[in-house]
From TrEMBL, chains A, B:
Keywords: Monooxygenase, Oxidoreductase. The keyword Repeat does not apply. This is Quinol monooxygenase YgiN. GO terms for molecular function: monooxygenase activity. Residues 6-91 form the ABM domain. The keyword Transmembrane helix does not apply.
Amino acid sequence: MEDALYGMIGKIKAQPGKRAELIALLSGGAADMPGCIAYLIAEDLGDADGIWITEVWKSKQFHADSLKLPAVRDAIARGRPLIAGFETHVETRPVNGAAR
Amino acid sequence: MEDALYGMIGKIKAQPGKRAELIALLSGGAADMPGCIAYLIAEDLGDADGIWITEVWKSKQFHADSLKLPAVRDAIARGRPLIAGFETHVETRPVNGAAR
């Protein structure tokens, strides 16, 4: 049986004035992750420090494995001081994986 | 100047037991909308009636125009009785539009 798609939707609150820097880090760290179908980053128009991330993975395991990738670990380590907190964090089962 | 990308992230709460039916409607109504770069639908793993939608549009105008499309108007009309409410609704400026 094919694994179900796995997804996450979350809001990260950057430290004041650090949103652009954090987004640059997230974009770089997320490049070329195996099993990652979508990794959409968006600025919250109503919150100058808010970042929304929508992730779609081929399976939950691919996401778990991504956290061991050196590029991802590095991005997490460098991003941590730029993060004020996490507001929304939802696990999902994506119904359609691909953007058009 | 090129228009900025426009996005939305929202959570829809389906009437009890109506999530699958509502997702089918949303998927059909969202097919082939001009200017729509991504329309990701996901079930909330922690809420049996919760649906998350992440949208990326070429501009805010394309989204506004989509609401006039017959297929979209039809999906909205048929979906309304299946919807219990809207929980999260955020406007965004997507930073990266495409899934990989």
